């Protein structure tokens, strides 16, 4: 089996993760105490991806729950799923990180990181063929961002060839819990760039918008937001958990969505959008699903895809849907929104179909897009970071934990480079990439070797942004390097 080990870190990560396990148990017919009560053999065919079968026929999640304070853990252990998780897989500290990335990454978090890794190794040893790791955390607090990224770097060291996917809640433009969110988020993105293969970006502001404007909920609560995130997560993982006509796994997803190694930050969209109480009343066609999933209103991060371009995208349909109908609708979508897709990666929407629909629905779709508009999210965080860092506000809290100012500067520069890369590929044209127009034939007047050299130069101008092939050793975008 291609197992996935799930890690939930910090308060936000644990709340989202617990809601995800509620939904996954419901879809697989597993009760809150881990006993199978379903009536469909397909529910058990791939149940081992996320669950380990213990003695007595009990299914135990391959999940590790981590926090630097015990409050969230106590809630889980006294909640609906109190008997579902393995007791040894709760790892927590006593002091908390106090919204300080450095505490989570260097001091308090580092103290419990070895305990977490010990549990993680045991879970990995219980797998026949470990596919990878899935992490839920937030980037704005101290534990999810600091300890979360520390664990990611340690996992990458120990399991360099396994996939790592994260569901990361990024700071919102309007909804902010903490003054130092921009610092924590920038330091985290710096780590996510190096130590992950796929990052699904989610933010509370976009989720609030969906709840108030689309679902017409007057006062959305965190359980409402967690329901939406969990719906997206279960959609993305459905092809891993159930057999289908077009299957996928974490590696296939990355191969189809990541054209360049650093550009692995994705937008998520889901359709149909439903509140917790209205799922049974929603009926839609494949055409409507395809239309809805592409709408900016359905995106779970505050970045408008219409102002950027899609490098790649993936649509995961669920339900009894003919493959031809999906293919036709995807083709129509590509033709209709042709200008929103870059021209130099042909056929850049991948689709998968899982036969089992979500509980209470006939069909649904989850959309993952690698869009250059995600740079808006990083620009926003970067701008807030610069305002505070210019005055060195709040820096002493981080320096007291042993950090160096240089780390802030490095993280800021790395994020600025990421924004520049997204912009560069957004503006790249077909002739920039290949060195000649699509309709033109290659010039034949020069030697073959010279032509190849020219092509290499043209490739470098887009791929690295360091040399534009004109021999002057810089890029022609008119900007000075920072």
Automatic annotation (TrEMBL):
Pfam families xrefs: Tubulin, Tubulin_C
Compositional bias per record (Acidic residues), positions renumbered to this chain: 434-458, 465-482
Gene3D superfamilies assigned to the protein according to its UniProt record, in alphabetical order: Helix hairpin bin (1.10.287.600), Tubulin/FtsZ, C-terminal domain (3.30.1330.20), Tubulin/FtsZ, GTPase domain (3.40.50.1440)
GO biological process assignments: microtubule-based process
Span list, region Disordered: 433-482
Keyword Nucleotide-binding applies: yes
Required cofactor(s): Mg(2+)
Keyword Repeat listed: no
One GO CC term, this protein: microtubule
Signal sequence residues: none
Keywords: Cytoplasm, Cytoskeleton, GTP-binding, Magnesium, Metal-binding, Microtubule, Nucleotide-binding
InterPro entries: Beta-tubulin_BS, Beta_tubulin, Tub_FtsZ_C, Tubulin, Tubulin/FtsZ-like_C, Tubulin/FtsZ_2-layer-sand-dom, Tubulin/FtsZ_GTPase_sf, Tubulin_C
Family: Belongs to the tubulin family.
Role noted for this protein: Tubulin is the major constituent of microtubules, a cylinder consisting of laterally associated linear protofilaments composed of alpha- and beta-tubulin heterodimers. Microtubules grow by the addition of GTP-tubulin dimers to the microtubule end, where a stabilizing cap forms. Below the cap, tubulin dimers are in GDP-bound state, owing to GTPase activity of alpha-tubulin.
Subunit comment: Dimer of alpha and beta chains. A typical microtubule is a hollow water-filled tube with an outer diameter of 25 nm and an inner diameter of 15 nM. Alpha-beta heterodimers associate head-to-tail to form protofilaments running lengthwise along the microtubule wall with the beta-tubulin subunit facing the microtubule plus end conferring a structural polarity. Microtubules usually have 13 protofilaments but different protofilament numbers can be found in some organisms and specialized cells.
Name the UniProt record assigns to this protein: Tubulin beta chain
Native organism: Anaeramoeba ignava (Anaerobic marine amoeba)
